[in-house]
Fold each of these.
Amino acid sequence: DGAYHFGFGDAAKNNIPSGEYTLEFNPEFKDTRYGSISFRESVVEGRMNPMDLRTVPALDPTINFVPVQGGGEVTLLGGDLVMDLTDTRLVFPDQNTSGPIHVQFTDFSQFPYPLGPLGYGHWLYFVQPGGIAVEGSITGLDIAMPAIMGSYDYVPDNGYYVVMLGLDDRSQLIVPVGVGQIENYRVRSVGELQYQRLDAIGYGMVPYEWQETLAKYANGDISLELMRAELSSVVNSTSGQ
C-alpha cells in the first residue's frame, strides 16, 4: 500500500499545469513482483485533483513470459487461451511489433481497471506489459471456461451468447468489444472483435434478454456501437420495471 502526492506544499510557480497526463506505475517492471500499468488523468492547475485508488496486480511468478507477434495463432496457459492474430499487428509500448507477454487469470478484485456499465464479468486475463496496441483486429479468441468449485453446472447450453470484454482506451473501462458463443465449456468469438489494447481479455455471462441483440452482432447485422446502445436500452427497460 502507498500513496503519492504531487505538488503538495510547493510554491505556486511550481504548480503542475492544467492538462491530461499519463501516470505509469512500476514502469519497465522495476519491481518484478508486480505488473506495469498506466492511466490518463486530467489536472486543473491550482486546484486539488483527487485521483482514484489504483490496484497494481501481483504477477504469478510460476507463469513465464511468452514471445508473441501478429500474423498467426498464439496458444497460452496450456490452451486455456488461444488468440488468432492472423489479421493483427501488435505494437508494444517500446514500439516493437513483437515481444514477451505475461498472461494470467485474474479476479476483478485484483484488476486495475473498473467495469463499465455493460461489462458483466467476474474474471479476465490480465496481459502484461500494459498498453500493447492492437492494429487491425484480433481474428478470433478461444477461451476455456473455468470450473466453479469443481463444477460446470453454471454454464448455459451450447450456443448461448456472451459478451467479449476488453479495455476501452479512452474511458479506461472494461467494456463489450464483441460477442462470443459457448461451445463445450469454451467461449469462442463470433463476428468482429474490436480490441484497442491487449491489457484485458475475457468474456461476461449476460442475461437472457441480451441474446437477440448479441445474435444480431454475431451475424453482422448491427455495429458494435448499435449493439452497445441496444444493450443499454435493454438494461434501462428491465431496471425500470
Amino acid sequence: MNITKTTPWFLYVCLILLSGYKSVKGSISPSSEPTKDGKFGFKPTTLFVFGDSYADTGNTPVIISPSWRFPYGITFPGKPTGRFGDGRISTDYLAKYLGLRTPIAYKWRRFALPRQVVNKGINFAFGGAGVFETIFTVPTASMQINSFERLLRKNVYSPADLNSSVAFFSFIGNDYIKYNIFNGTSQGRPALIRRVTKQILLDVKRIKDLGVRKVFVVLSPPHNCVPLYSTSKGCNTSNPLTKLHNSLIREGLRKLNDENNEKSFLMLDFYKAFMTIFKYRGVPGVSTFSEPLKACCEGRKGGNSCGDVDIYGRRLYSVCKDPKSFFFWDNVHITDEGWRSVFSLLLPDSR
C-alpha cells in the first residue's frame, strides 16, 4: 500500500478496540499492586516496550508517518518526535510511574549519548504493527521480540539488568483492522480473536522467559469510541467482541501467573479507563474534557487528516485552541492530557 502525505494512513493503523464497561477499580490486574520499590520486591531500572502507535516513540519512518510532521508534538516537547499525539504517550507515563526515563526508540539506539541511555531500556514499538502481519510492512510483535533477543545475545543487558526490568506490551488491534479491510466476515471474527489472543499470551510468556521480571499487558480500549467511528453524542459500546478479546487475555494471564509465585504479568485495563473518562468527561481533580469523543486535530475535508498538507505546503487540517481540553488528538490517538488521565486512573503515582 502506497502512503502519501495526504493519505490518512494512520486511520487504518487505528487500533481496533472492542467494547464493554465496568468501573476502573482494580484495573491493574491480577495483583492490583503498584510497581515501585517495596511494592513488589524490587526497584525497576530498565524498561522494554513492544507495541504499535499507542506506544511508539519514534520508530516509524519519517517519510511516511504523520507523527514526524507538525502539529504532532506541539504540547511536548514543542516539535514532532515520532509520537502519535501532541505530546507524551502511554510509554512516557508508564516510565514516569516506574521512576524511569522514557526508553530510546530502537531505531535511534546507535545514536544514543551517553551509551548508558540504551542500558536503561529500548522501545521496539512501531506504528501500524500487529501481533501478526498487518497492511503495513512493519515489525510484528514476534519480530520486535526477536530484535530484543538479538540485543541479549550481544550482552547489551546483563542478568542484573533483566532481573530489575519491566516490559510494556501494547498491541491494541491492527490485526483486526487488516481483517476488516479485507472484508472478513463477522462469523470469522471470534476465531481471529482467539488466534490473536493466543499469540499475545505466547509473546508475553516469551518476554518473561527471556529474563524480564514483570510484564505489563494492555487490555483493548473501546473501538467504537474513537472519533473515526463515534459521534459527539456518544458511541456504541455493545460490541461483544471486546469482551471476548479482553476476557481471553485476562484468563490467559491468570493462568500464566498461577504457574509462578512472582505474579509476573500485570494488566493495564485501557477499556475501563477510557470508558470512565467518557462517562465523567474526564477525571475529577485531574482533567476535564468538554467533548471527550471529538478530535483536537482534524482534516478540513473528507480524505484529509491531521498533519496533511497540499503540494504548496498549505495545511489541510485544523487544530483546536487547547489540546488539554480534548481526550483525542486525532481520529484515533490520544492527547498528552488524555494519556495523563488514563494513567492517573490506572497508576495514580504517574500523574
Amino acid sequence: MNYELPDIDTDEFNIKSENERIIIYRKLFAEMRLNRLYYHSFLMKFFLGKNNQEDVRSLLQSHISFLDKMLVWIDGLKENGNYEEFKKACTDEMGAIEKIIQTYKGRMNT
C-alpha cells in the first residue's frame, strides 16, 4: 500500500477550513481507490505466476496493518472534533462508490 494517513495532530491541519479538510479526506479516498486497483493488478500477476502466495499474504497483512492504523487515526479525529465532517465525507464517498457500482452492474448486464 502506498499512501499515508493525513497528519491530523498538527495545528496546520486543525486551522484549515472544513472544506480544506474535506479535500484532504477526498484525496485519501482517491488513494484508497487507486490501491484497490494495485491490489487487483497484484492478484492478476499472482494468477500469471509472477507473484507467489507469500507475496499475496504479505499484501493482505499490510491491509490489516492499515486498518489498525485507521482505527487510531479515527480516534484522533474524534478527539480533535473533526470526526463529524469526516463522516460527511465518507457518506459522500459512499454515494460516489454506489454510482460506480451501478455503472459496472449496468455494463455487465448488457
Amino acid sequence: MAFRSFSPRSGRRFLGIIALAIVFYNEFLVYKIQSLSWKSIPCQSGNCTRILLVADPQLIGQTFDTSFYNPLAIHDSDRYLKKSFREVLDHTRPHIIPFLGDLFDEGSVATNEEYSSYLRRFHDIFHTDSSIMKIYVPGDNDIGGENGEIVTPTKVNRFKSTFHTKNTYSWNNLIFYEANRLTREIPQPSTTPAPPYSSQRRFVLSHMSLLFYNDAFQERVLRYVLPHVIFTGHLHRSLFIRKSLKLSEFTRAHPLNANSERHMVNSFDLRDAETFLEIMVPTCSYRMGERNIGFGYAVVDGEDLLYTVLWSVDRFAQLFLYLIYILVCFIFLTTKLIFTCSIFATKKLQRLRITYSKV
C-alpha cells in the first residue's frame, strides 16, 4: 500500500530533488568543503613570496580522441580545472605562478588553428590578475619529446612566442631559471651566482626531473646555477629528492605530503649548502588517471622554504556518485514500470472474468 500511494508524480519530484542536491554538492559545495582542509602558511619574516605551482594540466585536445563524448569530456575537464584553480588562487593569493609544462595534451601535434583554440581555453581556465608574475615551462606534450616524437625548432619557437618565455625571471631577491631537458638548453646566469651566504635565492624550473637522472645535463645545470630549490612536474605525483654534492650517487624520490602527512606544511632550510633539493609537483588534472591531484604551494620566508600540496577534489568520486544516481533512477523506473504493468494486467484479467461470468 505504501508503494501504491507513492505516485509517479511524487517519485519524479523526489528524484528531481535528489538530482539537484547531487549537482549542487558535486559542482559547487564540494570545492568549498575541500578548501577547508588546506593549510595557510603565515609569513613570519614580514617579507614573504608566495608561489603557486601548476603542473601538467594537459588540456584535452581534438586530434587523438574523436569519440562522440569528447566535447563533453573537454567541457567537464576544463570546468573542473577552472573551479579548482579559482579556489587555490583565492586561498594562496600568489605573487608568482610557474606552470611546469604539459599545458596542452596535444600541443606538439596541433595545427595553428587548434593551438589557438587550446590557448583560449587555457587563458580562460587560468585567468589571473596581471600583477601576478607567470612563468611557462614547456613539456613534452607541448613541444614533443614523448614516445620518440621529435622536438623541432618550429614547435619550440611557437611555444616561446605564444607564452613570451625567457631564460630567467626575477622577483625581489628570487631568480628563476628554466632548464629544458627536452632541448638540452641550460640557463646560464649573466653573472656568477651569489655565494651561499647572500640573500639571493635561485630556483630552477623544469618539466622533467633534474636530479633523478645522473647525466651531463644535470651536472651542467647544477654547476652553472647552484640552485637552492628545483621545481618539476611530469611524473604526476607529489615527490621530493635530496641529493648531495656528489652528483654520481644513487638518486631516490620520496613521497611528499602523502597519507597521514598529506596536509602537512614542510619546511626546508635554504641555507643548506650540502645538498640539492627537488620538489615534484603533482598533476592538477584528473584526466591523468591519478586519484591524488592538486597544486603545489610554496612560500619563501626569509631563510626557509615552506611547502605544501593543496589537494583537489576527487572528480572520480563525483562521477561515481552521478553513476549511482543514474543506476538508482533506472531501478526505480524499471520497478515502477513492472508494477504498473502488473496492475494493468490484473485489471484486464478482472474485466475478462466479469465478461465471461456474464456470458
